[in-house]
């Protein structure tokens, strides 16, 4: 498999300040609301979401990636993706350290 080129740093000091992505996996504690229609805003509360460089993806089930904004290490805001069919969806937050999911009902 091809590998991405290593990031280039101008000095050891800037390399030392680069974001390291390791630590505990994210943990979703609550979804507000925990059901909604495509286009609705959802607030995800939990821990270990950040920093932004380490947050990889957010989806409402396979094939339904969502746009999102990392508010801080314990909160993400997102929007239910358009075209998502109704029913149960696994809302999944993926970081460089792992992933966590919670059930969301698409109306």
Number of helices: 1
- Give the class from helix and strand content and strand pairing: mainly beta
- Principal-axes geometry comes out as elongated
Oligomerization category of the chains in this entry:
single chain
Mean pLDDT: 88
How far is the N terminus from the C terminus? 40 Å
How does this structure look, described?
There is one protein chain. The protein is mainly β and 107 residues long. Helices cover 5% and strands 46% of the residues. It contains 1 helix and 8 strands. The protein has one helix at 12-16, and strands at residues 27-32, 35-36, 41-47, 55-60, 68-72, 75-79, 87-95, 98-106. The strands form 2 sheets. Strands 1-3-6-5 form a 4-stranded antiparallel sheet, with no helix packed on it. It has a 4-stranded mixed sheet with strand order 2-8-7-4, with no helix packed on it. It is elongated and about 40 Å long.
